[in-house]
Amino acid sequence: MGGAIHDKKEQMKYLQNRFDMVMNVLESIDPEQAGVEEIDRLLSILDDIEMKCKQFRRDWEE
């Protein structure tokens, strides 16, 4: 992807983009045909967001 993000404004922008991605994935899922793959993809994105939130929280404490 890109380099490290240290600016708080850029970190928040990154998180917003990731949440937007979650919303796009949710909106594109057909509930009648959704399967395990879609759920796994959402969980993966949410895991990535959680990891970044923890990283950014450490950065903000410094």
Automatic annotation (TrEMBL):
Domain of life, source organism: Bacteria
InterPro entries cross-referenced by the UniProt entry: YfjT-like (IPR047670)
NCBIfam families: SE1561_fam
Name of the protein: Uncharacterized protein
Species per Swiss-Prot/TrEMBL record: Halalkalibacter nanhaiisediminis
